[in-house]
Design brief:
With 554 residues, this protein is of the alpha+beta class. The chain has nine helices and 33 strands. The C terminus is likely disordered. Pfam families: WD40.
């Protein structure tokens, strides 16, 4: 089969899988026709694997033929060009002749003189000052001296990264799957030994990480719960005192939902402390402890500040024209992203929102303009914003300069980064491979320099939509198609064959592709949707489905 034909068929199969992935995200019951499409994903993947194998075989055959052609052409060229061969032999002879009397150089640094001694014993002595010697040095030598300290500093950073990578690579993890939710887990949050999860099944659950058991089921929302936040013990005590909440508790949980509300709960008793109507579906939320403020964003582009004690709406701004997909709060800095790839940075100042940055005309570090695409995840440090989208790379935005660089997050040709989490000096990133349908977790070092470390996968994990690190339990929590706890084994614990050993994927060490098109899949409005009822060769115009009509994948 011709290579172009194979690539076209692969493109169509991936497009079908992309449509199925979109259907699985919908926050509504699927129609009978949509259910049939989703059920075909396993057969589509089998067909895709066969096509990829054929493409690989085709490439190997082409490479073999090219090598044969090169050998034949080289032989013919040698036979038909005796003068060229003779010329090369003569040049080789001249080089050897010039090398019959080599010289040896010896630097006498004490006297500032250099001796050049020939083989026949004759000595040539050239005297010059140190300033003259510096002038005679090639520019490369001077540059090398100036950059010695920088090279040493870079080497130290690499060594530190390698040391951390070695430590993590030698660690072992036990993976536990927690059962309880009846639908996709949309958000996870952990503090000490407490885990709180939100789900599309409208519930919030509280888990004990030490026993891996469910201890509370918080029911009260009437639509998908999209995000959860845990106030630590000190913050919880402060808020409870201001609310005059006297029942026994240890943590306060805040949950946001598509039912246009956020609620406060007691994690210990499971009681609802209060509910605040927001007038807009809440897609993400955060808590600012210094000012007792709950920050919410909506599918209509609103960014709002709420007083957690009085429930008063302090400020409401239309920060975006599209649905807000991610929210990150670091100190007084609020970072938001949208379904159309826009990023904004606001500062909370005197209980007001001041816009500091809007992502217009973003450029890569090489000067290329970046095409805005659906942003699915955000994480931030003081200086950088990390964001994931429908592409194989994580983007690192220096928002003060408006520059973006990329780090590879997927070994395959197509991937999605749905979840990011910064903890201490580490960045945890989910990676979903569309071809296989499996999810994995990559760990990067953020400081002193960004560097890939390890990958965790149990070959049984699907889509990961959120990830958090719990220092108290020394565990990584992932939520999505499954709720899993990746617990690091301590020294002295028994090791079993079922334990997960971290991998190091060579592809993720390489430099990321600096291109607008990182995948061989791109959907355009002029292209028809894949035909699920046939082999995909039909060119009949069909109605676009959801945001797939405009989405092009990076």
């Amino acid at each position: 089969m011709e290579r172009d034909t194979l690539e076209l068929k692969i493109r169509r199969q991936r497009k079908k899988l992309r449509q199925i992935e979109h259907l699985e995200r919908l926050d509504r019951p699927l129609t009978d026709e949509e259910i049939v499409k989703v059920e075909r994903k396993y057969r589509i993947r089998e067909e895709l694997f066969d096509l990829l194998a054929g493409l690989s075989e085709n490439a190997n055959n082409s490479a073999s033929l090219q090598e044969d052609d090169i050998v034949t052409d080289s032989s013919q060229a040698a036979d038909q060009s005796p003068s060229l061969s003779a010329g090369l032999q003569e040049e080789s002879h001249n080089i050897q002749k010039r090398g019959n009397n080599p010289v040896e150089a010896k630097d006498n640094s004490a006297s500032g003189k250099e001796e050049i001694k020939a083989k026949d014993g004759q000595e040539l002595r050239i005297s010059y000052s140190k300033a003259e010697k510096d002038t005679l040095q090639p520019p490369e030598s001077k540059k090398a001296k100036k950059e010695t300290s920088k090279s040493t500093e870079k080497s130290d950073k690499v060594n530190k990264g390698n040391s951390l990578q070695k430590t993590l690579k030698e660690s072992r993890y036990q993976v536990f799957t927690l059962e309880g939710h009846n639908d996709v887990i949309t958000a996870v949050e952990a503090a000490d030994s407490i885990l709180v999860t939100a789900s599309r099944d409208t519930t919030v659950k509280v888990w004990d990480l030490s026993t891996l058991t469910e201890i509370q089921n918080l029911g009260g929302h009437t639509n998908s719960v999209t995000d959860v936040v845990i106030l630590d013990k000190e913050q919880s005590a402060t808020v409870a005192s201001k609310l005059q909440w006297t029942d026994a508790f240890n943590y306060i949980v805040v949950s946001g939902s598509m039912d246009c509300s956020f609620k406060l709960w007691s994690a210990k008793t499971g009681q609802q402390i209060k509910s605040v109507y927001t007038y807009n579906p809440v897609t993400k939320l955060a808590y600012h402890p210094g000012q007792d403020i709950v920050v919410t964003v909506s599918d209509g582009g609103k960014l709002e500040l709420w007083d957690i004690v009085t429930s008063v709406n302090i400020q409401s701004v239309r920060a975006h024209d599209d649905a807000v997909t991610a929210l990150c709060l670091i100190g007084n800095t609020v970072t938001t992203s949208t379904s159309f790839g826009e990023i904004k940075v606001h500062e909370i100042r005197d209980q007001s929102l001041i816009c500091l940055f809007a992502s217009e005309n973003l450029q890569s570090s090489s000067g290329r303009h970046l095409t805005p695409r659906y942003i699915r995840s955000l994480a931030a440090t003081k200086d950088y914003i990390f964001y994931g989208d429908d592409g194989i790379n994580i983007k690192v935005l220096d928002w003060k300069k408006g520059l973006v660089r990329k780090i590879c997050n997927h070994a395959g040709d197509f991937g999605i980064t749905d979840a990011l989490c910064c903890h201490d000096k580490l960045l945890f990133a989910s990676a979903f491979d569309l071809d296989t349908g499996f999810g994995s977790l990559n760990v990067f070092q953020v400081e002193p320099d960004l560097q890939y470390l390890i990958t965790l996968t149990d070959e049984d994990t699907g889509h990961i939509l959120d990830v958090k690190y719990c220092q108290g339990a020394d565990s990584i929590i992932t939520g999505g198609m499954e709720l899993k706890v990746w617990r690091k084994l301590t020294s002295g614990q028994s090791v079993s064959e079922e334990d997960i050993i971290p991998d190091v994927i060579p592809r993720l060490i390489q430099q990321a592709i600096d291109s607008d098109m990182e995948s061989d899949v791109e959907f355009s409005e002029s292209e028809s949707e894949a035909d699920f009822n046939g082999d995909g060769d039909s060119t009949a115009s069909q109605q676009n489905v959801g945001w797939l009509s405009w989405c092009s994948l990076l």
